[in-house]
Amino acid sequence: MKILFILCATFSIIALATITIFLAINGIPFIAKIGIKDFLFSENWGPLNTNPTYGILSMLVCSLYVTALSVLFGVGIGLFTAIALYKFVPKKFVGIISYTINLLAGIPSVIYGLFGAEIIVPFLQDYVSPTGVGYGIFATSIVLAIMILPTIVSVSLDSLRSVPKEYYENALALGATKEQSVFKVVVPSAKSGILAGVVLAIGRAIGETMAVIMVIGNSPSMPKSLFQSTRTMTANIALGAMEMSGDALKALIATGVILFVFVLLLNLSFSLLKEKKEKR
Description:
By secondary structure, this protein is mainly alpha-helical.
């Protein structure tokens, strides 16, 4: 059994190392070739033009907007849902609601994309968008917020339940109300676990592809409105991977390097923050 565990751990390490080496060998030399300034800080994306350009700034900005807005929606709804399930929803309904939310995690992303394209986009186009365009950052953020809900709710709820019951009971004994005990004692005690859920949600949001392609519009232009056809980095990679070759394909791999570094820095920051808090 010990050997099996070692083999599984070794496989995981090899898989990560292989992906890292692949991205480094194919992506970093390309970035060095065209210059990081022209790659990261140029809006001009035209890898198949006569004079090709490889600027990903518009897609980088779009990815950050979509991720930030979807996490804002998702954390707001997910955290309060977890708190409600923790102490405010009758116990006989907690299991049903939790099961329903967890089912969302098993729905294929293409189904979310269809839901967004057929329901959310037309609704925004007819009733919300000032430009009459339903596609864009806002629609994508709503779809992604729904997709990351199970992660935020489940991790946050587990974190709340891991807080010793004595914290809550002692707060009540000191005269605090139920709401005060939860929001001022339990939630702060569980913030490390809640933050872990947020980090996982950010990783899911910035890495999602299929659902995003179906509601973002896919025009590689700098986003100037929430209701405008634009494109994320992951969507750009997926749309071009099957038809591009040579430097154009390397540009997509280099985009993957940027995504990889972003997620790596995100996880590293969380680990350092957690370690710092534990030392206190």
